[in-house]
Write a structure and sequence with these properties.
Mean pLDDT: 84
Number of strands: 0
Largest sheet: none
Shape: globular
Number of helices: 18
Low-confidence stretches: none
Radius of gyration: 20 Å
Order of helices and strands: HHHHHHHHHHHHHHHHHH
CATH class: Mainly Alpha
CATH architecture: Up-down Bundle
CATH topology: Na+/H+ antiporter like fold
């Protein structure tokens, strides 16, 4: 089917899906994902795997815009107030999820390399789902600010955790000769560092030009130019799109705050249709047929990741002496999981399939289980995020009334 026809259909049906989900007091994101699920291979098969591959660019654009939006909110004064507390929250929620999933999977499989890889999948979140819900309900307050910081930064830590866990898993499978200490220590660190440097470089240059721009149209054009440069170079150099654009927004917010706000306000005008397409396409990637095959491993992964994120976020917020609402509800806002986890699972397939029968087996196990559990987390994540900001009293009163 013609791609433009499908995109038009996705926008129309996604909009209808959000209206229906609104009647059930659910976030619009849930409606978008369900429409995508219906249009994808699981049901109507209008979005074939070949078409979905051709439309990957939409996902890159959406994630880049989300990351920039998050970064533009991370001003030095805000980060200073959160300080070490934010670091405690991110480390504890990520590592609690990692270790809890790892030990549960080891208990079931008695294989450390399998446990390490599943544990490494757990910390990755889906910032797009969280940000979409916060924007839909115009949420404001301490919990919202903390959520924006956490979902923006914990993917960076997730990449680092995966780098070390995968290197150790390869050693345990028996490929120690192919792994040296340098790659074990510097592989993930190099990706993070290069992503940050790219974001800083483009952010500094863009801040200089932004001071000379007043027209809203010009702000939008140049903002998208900077964001797309970050995304394109990240893809070319195998860096993190999320980290580079988050850094771009962060640099802008701290060098030229007025420019960062103008850029964030300008891109708000184009994000709604891109978000609709992004989540419809995300739903189209899901395979409902995988759910029965998920088995006990998938159930333990869901339990371990959920408990780890909830418990780790609460513990971190308690240590940070955060407000009561942040302690009680932060974990509910970070349960979404999609792009980064699927991306890491695909890396496992690429890196481990060539490591003999055991490597191939764990690769298939990872991709199937993560793909299946993503269906669960993509649907419940936005719902629990709404519950969190509602319980914290941070939903805009007019929006809540509507």
């Amino acid at each position: 089917m013609e791609i433009l026809l499908l995109l038009g259909l996705s926008l129309l049906l996604g909009y209808i899906g959000s209206i229906i989900s609104g009647h059930f007091k659910l976030p619009g994101v849930v409606g978008y994902i369900i429409i995508g699920l219906l249009l994808g291979p699981s049901f109507l098969d209008l979005f074939t795997p070949h078409l979905l591959e051709k439309m990957d660019m939409i996902s890159d654009i959406a994630l880049s815009l989300v990351a920039f939006t998050i970064g533009s909110e991370m001003r030095a004064d805000v980060l200073k107030r959160q300080g070490a507390g934010l670091a405690a929250i991110i480390f504890l929620e990520s590592f609690c999820a990692f270790f809890l999933v790892m030990f549960l999977v080891y208990w079931l499989t008695h294989k450390w390399y399998v446990a390490l890889l599943f544990g490494a999948m757990a910390p990755a979140s889906a910032p797009a789902g969280t940000v979409a819900v916060l924007q839909e309900y115009k949420a404001k307050g301490p919990l919202t600010n903390t959520l924006l910081s956490v979902v923006g930064l914990d993917d960076g830590l997730a990449i680092i955790i995966y780098g070390f866990a995968a290197a150790l898993a390869k050693k345990l499978i028996g490929s120690a000769d192919e792994i040296n200490i340098q790659s074990f220590l510097t592989g993930p660190a190099s990706e993070i560092t290069k992503s940050l440097l790219l974001g800083v470089a483009i952010g500094v240059a863009f801040s200089y030009f932004a001071k000379k721009i007043d027209s809203q149209n010009d702000v939008l054009i140049t903002s998208l130019a900077a964001i797309f440069l970050c995304a394109g170079l990240s893809n070319m150099w195998n860096l993190s799109i999320i980290l580079t654009n988050l850094t771009l927004g962060l640099v802008m917010a701290n060098i030229y705050l007025h420019g960062a706000r103008k850029s964030a306000d300008a891109i708000q005008y184009i994000t709604p249709p891109i978000f609709v397409l992004f989540f419809v396409l995300a739903g189209s990637h899901l395979r409902i047929q995988l759910l029965p095959a998920m088995g006990m491993l998938g159930i333990l992964y869901i339990i371990g990741r959920t408990a780890g994120l909830l418990g780790g976020a609460y513990l971190g917020a308690t240590i940070a002496k955060a407000e009561k609402n942040v302690r009680n509800y932060l974990g509910l806002g970070i349960l979404s999981q999609a792009g980064v986890a699927i991306g890491l699972a695909l890396i496992v397939v690429k890196e481990f399939s060539e490591l003999g029968p055991e490597g191939h087996q764990v690769a298939i196990l990872i991709i199937n289980t993560i793909a299946a559990t993503t269906i669960i987390f993509e649907i419940i994540g936005p719902i629990t995020t709404k519950i969190a900001i509602e319980k914290a009293g941070e939903i805009d009163k007019l929006e809540k009334h509507n």
